[in-house]
Amino acid sequence: MPQIFNLQSSILLPAWPDWGVFMKTIGLIGGMSWESSIEYYRIINQATREALGGLHSAKSVMISVEFAEIEALQHENRWDDATRILVDAAIGLEKAGADFALICTNTMHKLYESIQKKIQIPLLHIADATAATIKKNGINKVGLLGTRFTMVEDFYKGRLIDKYDFEVLIPADNDIEQVHHIIYDELCAGIIKPASKQVYADIIERLVAEGAMAIILGCTEIGLLVKREDSLVPIFDTTEIHARAAVEMALEN
User: Fold this and answer.
1) Is 104 a catalytic residue?
2) Following DSSP, what letter does each residue of 118-183 receive, concatenated?
3) Which region, left, alpha or beta, applies to residue 234 given φ > 0 means left and ψ of -120 to 50 means alpha?
4) Which fold has domain 4-125+241-251?
């Protein structure tokens, strides 16, 4: 049966007298795009309430960057300049009291190591959280959708292959360009088109025909478009997984 993994909370917690004392502060580097940053904030607070009940919400701080500037640096291959912007944001989160941080986008995990070495608090890698969830479901061959950078370059799929022993399939060249175009020109601008949904559904079908046992939505905007009925195999939404993993980390004793 088609299904999408939304990682509903299964956190088992002891009955501390005051959860606010034991909740870590989550740092969020957002704005890439703000459409998906909204989802991070919503999911994190929803998962916190599911775990703790009542009026509980997450302790968090967000620094939101200017995405038009980041997008230009990406496509001009100016990754050093982009690194400086995100390092400044990460240092800002640390100074603001965050106990750990998330980069609220898949693509900018290309800079993960450069950012992590500049701060003392840990960065929760989106691919690590996603891989842990997939492994629990006994899946080892996945299709990956994301920006061209995420699908083609090695920083993301290489981590899944080398660290977690996954077999990772990506779309054909023309499909890669379509996926990339829809992300930047539509989803990041809040534009949801039925025709684009069908494009993604067709690409997913081709990946499944090649043997993909599941599909990773490796861009934090794709979940705005792709839904359960668009795939015959499980879909792993990295936004949902990353956000809920942050809540688990925040509530660890």
Assistant:
1) no
2) T-SSPB--HHHHHHHHHHHTT--EEEEES-HHHHHSHHHHHHHHHHH--EEE---HHHHHHHHHHH
3) beta
4) Rossmann fold (3.40.50)
User: What average pLDDT score do residues 15-40 get?
Assistant: 82
**What ranges do the domains of the chain cover?**
4-125+241-251, 127-238
| Interacting residues of 195 by C-beta distance below 8 A, sequence separation 6+ | none
Whole-angstrom Cα distance, residue 45 to residue 220?
17
Q: For 166-212, write each residue's pLDDT tens digit.
A: 999 999 999 999 999 999 999 999 999 999 999 999 999 999 999 99
Give residue 50's pLDDT.
95
For residue 37, the one-letter residue type is S
Which of 107, 188, 219, 239 is catalytic? The answer is 219
What was the pLDDT predicted at 10? Answer: 43
Q: Which two tokens stand for residue 201?
A: 């559904």
Check if 130 is active-site.
no
Cα 220 from Cα 233, distance rounded (Å): 19
Active-site residue, selected from the candidate residues 48, 83, 104, 105: 105
What CATH code would you report for 127-238?
Answer: 3.40.50.1860
Q: Are 104 and 36 in contact (CB under 8 A)?
A: yes
